[in-house]
Automatic annotation (TrEMBL):
Homodimer. It is an enzyme of class 2 (transferase). It comes from Lederbergia citri. GO terms for cellular component: cytosol. Its main location: cytoplasm. It catalyses: D-fructose 6-phosphate + L-glutamine = D-glucosamine 6-phosphate + L-glutamate. Coiled coil: none annotated. The lineage of its organism: Bacteria, Bacillati, Bacillota, Bacilli, Bacillales. Keywords: Aminotransferase, Cytoplasm, Glutamine amidotransferase, Repeat, Transferase. Catalyzes the first step in hexosamine metabolism, converting fructose-6P into glucosamine-6P using glutamine as a nitrogen source. This is Glutamine--fructose-6-phosphate aminotransferase [isomerizing]. Its EC number is 2.6.1.16. It comes from the Bacteria. The active site is at 357 (for fru-6p isomerization activity).
């Protein structure tokens, strides 16, 4: 049928969509570039971002995880305070809003009911809303004041992959263009860094056997698996754990390294797989300290670090990229590990049980 044709030679949409990520990065660079070769966003969007005193990001699932990374970008580059909220909680736990709030809805499908419920509330109050979505003309796009598109192409697999990295890239562009127009000097050219990212993604997508090995060594029989990281790595750990639980049904959780000692370390047993991300220089030694603590309790560690920060104990070293943008590449091994874990456990990779691609009920 038609869907078989679209999948081409790939056994699963998820694998195809993981592999499309370098191409999507290049499409995004193109789509948000002006004739002078500079990154650009629509002027009305730039104005509304510059005028607001606080941004509220609202999203669900993987899109929420992209929002957590986006907060870091917007605060560190554009110096605008950001809150990130799970849509389903936001409606009845609405925080005290600032004087001039701007709402950003992140949604691959643009149809998620929980996010839409918040958008309706926000519009009733007369606030401005921007939707970041992959689907032009989707409900969230039509009902918001502004839209930024992901240009990721249709995402079919239930587990979101290329939409996540596309969301992060678009949020980086939003933050970067805003920063520049506020006269803030960032000391790097995002457009150039995103090009480096696209190449690094390609390198990672070419190392599939390595992730298949990691998945088959660490995950075929395990009941659970933990992902630990600090700072921006922690947000990627949340996404890595979500990917693994969605498609392999392994109980997986992402934790902040520093929180281990406050509870989670009690769960570590002989052989418990712990995947640690170490891409940030300022927390490199503290996250490695956490790995030592879990190993002392019997954990089976897998450290994924970044070139320049690596040590002999690392299982995989990512190519060096701009430190702020590491989520764009550190998530790829986690996506592939989840993919192979699902495959080896005989699960339905593209259509995991109990889940839907887009949840249109609250
Ligand atoms: C569902 C999907 C997830 C997705 C979430 C939010 O739960 O299974 O993959 O992250 O919805 O979807 P959205 O389209 O709003 O990004």
């Amino acid at each position: 049928d038609a869907s078989d044709i679209e999948k081409g030679t790939y056994p699963h949409y998820m694998l195809k969509e993981i592999d499309e990520q370098p191409l999507v990065m290049r499409k995004i660079i193109q789509a948000y570039q002006n004739e002078k070769g500079e990154l650009e966003i629509a002027e009305d969007i730039l104005n509304v971002v510059k005028e607001c005193d606080r941004i509220y990001i609202v999203a669900c699932g993987t899109s929420y995880h992209a929002g957590l990374v986006g907060k870091q970008f917007i605060e560190s580059m554009a110096k605008i305070p950001v809150e990130v909220h799970v849509a389903s909680e936001f409606s009845y736990n609405m925080p005290l809003l600032s004087e001039k709030p701007l709402f950003i809805f992140i949604s691959q499908s643009g149809e998620t009911a929980d996010s839409r419920a918040v958008l309706v509330q926000v519009k009733e109050k007369g606030y401005k809303a921007l939707t970041i979505t992959n689907v032009p003309g989707s409900t969230l796009s039509r009902e918001a004041d502004f839209t930024m598109l992901l240009h990721a192409g249709p995402e079919i697999a239930v587990a979101s992959t290329k939409a996540y990295t596309a969301q992060i890239a678009v949020l980086a562009i939003l933050a970067n263009v805003t920063a520049k127009s506020r006269g803030l000097n960032l000391g790097f050219e995002l457009i150039h860094e995103l090009g480096i990212i696209a190449n690094a993604m390609e390198t990672l997508c070419d190392s599939k056997e390595e992730y298949e090995k990691i998945a088959s060594e660490f995950l075929p029989f395990t009941r659970n698996c933990f992902f630990i990281g600090r700072s921006i790595d922690y947000f990627v750990c949340l996404e890595g754990a979500l990917k693994l639980k969605e498609i392999s049904y392994i109980q997986a959780e992402g934790f902040a390294g520093g929180e281990l000692k406050h509870g989670t370390i009690a769960l570590i047993e002989d052989g418990t797989p712990v995947i640690a991300l170490a891409t940030q220089e300022n927390v490199n030694w503290s996250i490695r300290g956490n790995v030592k603590e879990v190993v002392a309790r019997g954990a089976n560690p897998c450290i994924i670090s970044m070139a320049g920060l690596e040590t002999d104990e690392d299982r995989f070293v990512l190519p060096a990229v701009n430190e702020l943008l590491t989520p764009l590449i550190s998530v790829i091994p986690l996506q592939l590990i989840a993919y192979y874990a699902s495959l080896h456990r005989g699960c339905d990779v593209d259509k995991p049980r109990n889940l839907a691609k887009s949840v249109t009920v609250e």
